[in-house]
Amino acid sequence: MSTELERLTARLRAFAEARDWEQFHTPKNLAMALAGEVGELVAEFQWLTPAESASLDPATLDRVRSELGDVTAYLVRLADVLGIDLVEAAGAKLDENERRYDPGRYRGSARKAPPLSS
Amino acid sequence: MSTELERLTARLRAFAEARDWEQFHTPKNLAMALAGEVGELVAEFQWLTPAESASLDPATLDRVRSELGDVTAYLVRLADVLGIDLVEAAGAKLDENERRYDPGRYRGSARKAPPLSS
Amino acid sequence: MSTELERLTARLRAFAEARDWEQFHTPKNLAMALAGEVGELVAEFQWLTPAESASLDPATLDRVRSELGDVTAYLVRLADVLGIDLVEAAGAKLDENERRYDPGRYRGSARKAPPLSS
Amino acid sequence: MSTELERLTARLRAFAEARDWEQFHTPKNLAMALAGEVGELVAEFQWLTPAESASLDPATLDRVRSELGDVTAYLVRLADVLGIDLVEAAGAKLDENERRYDPGRYRGSARKAPPLSS
Questions:
Q1: CA distance B33 to C58
Q2: pLDDT band at C3 (very low <50, low <70, confident <90, very high)
């Protein structure tokens, strides 16, 4: 795992320990917390067109950054309690998808298959 | 951003470019893809007790690792198209929460406030 | 509650009882199951433009109908175990939103406020 | 569709028309709005044990009722713009699950298969 991610992981662990919140940080509960934060993120984009979502005004971008911070925090904490390396897990999925979605065959089409992952 | 996360970001970008899928990777669409993957992750834990979720059998752990890989891939790709640094965003939220949740006052209680983030 | 919704509620309750699955149907678990199904629903729309999502091909519409069936089943079951009347709860929110979003002031704008609910 | 659900559907349609918000109410956008509200619902339960989630204090129950109202409103509105009958769709899934999960075989076990739906 990367140094910066390792540092964030350690900070989140210390944060939970200092408040005796490890008892709440089961994978089940953290997955729910992650889902809650992703819900807030999705809500930021719900009435925007795809094009509008790509050129956010500064206030919306700040809220989105804050939501992405929450999502990242819970994701990193969940991976820590499960002993999973996120970058490695994503890399393994990407290896698989590079084999599965031939660039020539799937070029420009999201209809034939869901891009990026299964 | 950390070197390992930078490498993953670059790989995901190249993956999208090689298939001409950048047109689908708007923040709105990527937030939906992230929500879809988090839904699959949550589904893995839905019928488990919190204790069971903390000691997964190997097959379930493999599926969870795979889902966490998908979640990470979409999250990193979304942050890339928005120009947001995930580790920095999470760190800023953690700074805020360290001020907000005094360890003495919130010790052992998730009732008083949602731990880890707002 | 409506007769048709009452019948669906009763069928779902009998389904759970016949399999001794009431033990799994806590509000926490059912909320997770609902989130999982909504994730599958969102995934159906993730790469479509808003316009495309409004004119689905028959195969996609069938999958969406099936996902909406799952979402409805878990929502109705969750409301049943909580003793909440869904139509009444939605009506109360709509009363509130009719007061809050003056038709003249909010006409044609989703920017000023999130339409339909808070 | 049931009379009460029909009335709610009609009210939601009139609410959108009066504000010229039909333009925002594409299936893609409404699915996102639904996901956002389900995220808020899940967040209410995230730190509770399954048992605690089954005996909510009055204030939490009020918030949960309000979230269920929002979820129902978006679900009913989404079904309306798609021309899908929710009760019929849920009934069809339940028919399928009654065949699939034999009460004798699946009795008391959520391990063998996800209860209630696929």
A1: 22
A2: confident
Per-residue confidence band for A84, with pLDDT thresholds at 50, 70 and 90: very high
**What's the rounded Cα separation, in Å, for the pair D39 and D18?**
28
Reduced to 3 states (helix: H, G, I; strand: E, B; else coil), residue B113 is coil
**Average of per-residue pLDDT across D43-69:** 98
How many Å apart are CA D16 and CA D40, to the nearest integer? 23
Tell me what the mean pLDDT of segment C62-91 comes to.
98
B71 chain-A contacts, CB cut-off 8 A: 34, 75
What whole-number distance in Å separates Cα of residue A17 and Cα of residue B8? 30
Cβ-proximal residues to B30 (8 Å cutoff; 6+ apart), any chain: B74, B77, B78, B81
Chain D residues near residue A43 by CB distance under 8 angstroms: 32-33, 36, 39
The amino acid at B21: W
Per the model's pLDDT, the better-predicted residue between B82 and A118 turns out to be B82
pLDDT in tens, C12-32: 999 999 999 999 999 999 999
C24 close to D51: Cβ distance less than 8 angstroms:
no
Distance separating alpha carbons of residues B64 and C40, to the nearest angstrom: 16
**Which among A43, A50, A114 is the nearest to C49, CB-wise?**
A50
Q: Do C74 and D23 touch (CB under 8 A)?
A: no
Tell me if C42 sits within 8 A of A43, measured CB to CB.
Answer: no
Question: Which chain A residue is nearest to residue B11, measuring alpha carbons?
Answer: A94
Q: pTM surpassing 0.90?
A: yes
| Mean pLDDT in residue range B42-56 | 98
Q: Which residues of A touch D74 (CB under 8 A)?
A: none
Nearest CA of chain B to the CA of C46: how many Å? 5
Q: CA-CA distance, A32 to C31, in Å (whole number)?
A: 9
d(CA C31, CA C25): 9
